[in-house]
Amino acid sequence: xxxxxxxxxxxxxITEEKINDAVCRIASLINADFKEKTPxxxxxxxxxxxxxxxxxxxxxxxxxxxxxxxxSYRGTQSSGNVTTSIGMDVxxxxxxxxxxxxxxDTGKTLTTFIEELKKEEPSSIxxxxxxxxxxxxTHPIPIDYxxxxxxxxxxxxxxxxxxxxxxxxKDIHQLQEG
Length: 178
Ligand code: 5GP
Description:
Blueprint: E1 3-5, E2 8-14, H1 16-33, E3 40-45, H2 49-57, E4 64-69, E5 96-104, H3 108-118, E6 124-132, E7 145-149, E8 155-156, E9 172-176
Parallel strand pairs: 3-4, 3-5, 5-6, 6-7
Antiparallel strand pairs: 1-2, 2-9, 8-9
Helix pairs in contact: 1-2
Bound molecules: guanosine-5'-monophosphate (5GP).
Guanosine-5'-monophosphate (5GP) binds next to strand 5, helix 3 and strand 8.
């Protein structure tokens, strides 16, 4: 059933069950790939908070997690402005980094953030994103662990918001035009 958030209508798009399957699949891959390692997960706030929380519960290797805040995304259009990160309180030098992101759209946010991280000389950087709007990507970045490729339509739920609302929806919903 469609739901109304502020002035817009959204239709159910990816169910809680499918999201959970994707989270478990990604976690198994990371558990296998980083078996002998001690990665540091960096989750990007605000949007990735639910994805990061569910994924991290499925991680069974020694690891750490920290959270950073980057630029905000206003309305249903990417602002294109990426500010520097706030909250990086852990040294990443010689660490194996796994970035947790809710959605890669143009790719600008992660491209800028990765450049910033590289200056601190981590030993590796892997990218894990729940969603990828492949058609909208102008700054291609390799996504090592991906939940779903989606069309270039605005989505909410499972941590993703529309002007601050809708983050608590269990399913991901897609904007209905018109
Ligand atoms: P990029 O820099 O890749 O264009 O934008 C990435 C950020 O834009 C994401 O972390 C997310 O915060 C926001 N974003 C991109 N597409 C959507 C969308 O469909 N819905 C919501 N809620 N946020 C989005």
